[in-house]
Amino acid sequence: MAKGYRPVLRDQPMLLPVDMREWLPEDHLAWFVLETVEVLDTSGLERSRRVGAAGRAGYDPRMLFALLVYGYCLGVRSSRVIERLCTTDVAFRVLCAQDPPDHTTIARFRAEAGPAFAGLFTQVLLVAARAGLARFGTVAIDAGRRSPRTPRSMPTGVVTGWRSRSRRW
């Protein structure tokens, strides 16, 4: 049986330690993501960003990429959900250094830096495999195009015996 209740001090200036490294345990996935992104060749991300123009300073592309990688690790892909988690989840707050980007910034970054993502995600998977975090096999992405008249049961790669009725102009 408890002697009483703990005091609830909502007007306390800082509830978390001042040093963000104390917010999460050392073996947390967020620290691994940050360390991995620091090792990667992110020059492709930096080339797609404009710097030196008038206006407010932009977000660091490595920070935005780390947010996306961590979100993908947790199964979160929505930029609106990532924005919300940057204010409510401690790990996301650490990743964005308590300077949360809005969902539009995250979505635009994802769209503008899309071509650089393939190489970077490959690098992330290689680092994770070397660290022994997971076993990886063959990953196949089906990017084949199908005619609206092609049955869904047919594969999109090589279609044999199916004649397209579309006309070429």
Furnish the topology, listing elements before pairings.
Blueprint: H1 29-39, H2 43-47, H3 61-73, H4 79-88, H5 90-95, H6 103-112, H7 114-130
Helix pairs in contact: 1-3, 4-6
Q: How much helix, percentage-wise, in residues?
A: 40-55%
**Secondary structural class:** mainly alpha
User: Over the alpha carbons, how many angstroms does the gyration radius reach?
Assistant: 22 Å
Name the overall outline: globular
What share of the residues does DSSP label as strand, in percent?
under 5%
- What is the total tally of β strands? 0
Distance between the termini: 83 Å
- Reading the helices and strands in chain order gives HHHHHHH
Global mean pLDDT: 76
Helix segment count?
Answer: 7
Uncertain runs with pLDDT below 50, 5 residues or more? Answer: 158-169
Q: Outline the biggest β-sheet.
A: none
What do you see in this structure?
The structure is a single chain. With about 170 residues, this protein is mostly helical. Helix content is about 45%, strand content about 0%. The protein has helices at about 30-40, 45, 60-75, 80-90, 90-95, 105-110, 115-130. The chain is globular.
